[in-house]
Write a structure and sequence with these properties.
The chain is an all-beta fold and about 120 residues long. Helices cover about 0% and strands about 50% of the residues. The chain contains no helices and 11 strands. Strands 2, 4, 5, 6, 9, 10 and 11 form a 7-stranded mixed sheet that branches. A 4-stranded antiparallel sheet has the order 1-3-8-7, with no helix packed on it. It starts with a strand and ends with a strand.
Length: about 120
């Protein structure tokens, strides 16, 4: 399994970025997928989740209304459009198979093929 995240960068508050995550080695559309982020000194946080068909989405309250998750199963790629970025969005972003449990985006149990992530830095 290979996971490659890209699209991060340095932006000013209020700016936008579009993250991509390409997955190979598995049947991509077998999985609901999610985006996660981890800031220095903090635990990993589930940001958003999308079902395998791309018809249902879920967002953490911290990003609701600003981020949009989508996927292209023909390209084995997951996306995260991030608008109105805030300094608190600064983190390394990762994708993984995911679900929602008790209102929280969580990694699918047993999954351990993390990519290198893509760094998002929002300056104030």
């Amino acid at each position: 399994v290979q996971v490659v995240e890209s699209g991060g960068g340095l932006v000013q508050t209020g700016g936008s970025l579009r993250l991509s995550c390409t997955v190979s080695g598995v049947t991509f559309d077998d999985y609901d997928m999610g985006w996660f982020r981890q800031a220095p000194g903090k635990e990993r946080e589930g940001v958003s989740c999308i079902n395998w068909r791309g018809t249902n989405t879920y967002y953490a309250d911290s990003v609701k209304g600003r981020f949009t998750i989508s996927r292209d199963n023909a390209k084995n790629t997951l996306y995260l459009q991030m608008n109105s970025l805030k300094p608190e969005d600064t983190a390394m972003y990762y994708c993984a198979p995911a679900g929602v449990q008790k209102g929280i985006v969580v990694v699918t149990p047993g999954y351990n093929y993390w990519g290198q992530g893509t760094q998002v830095t929002v300056s104030s």
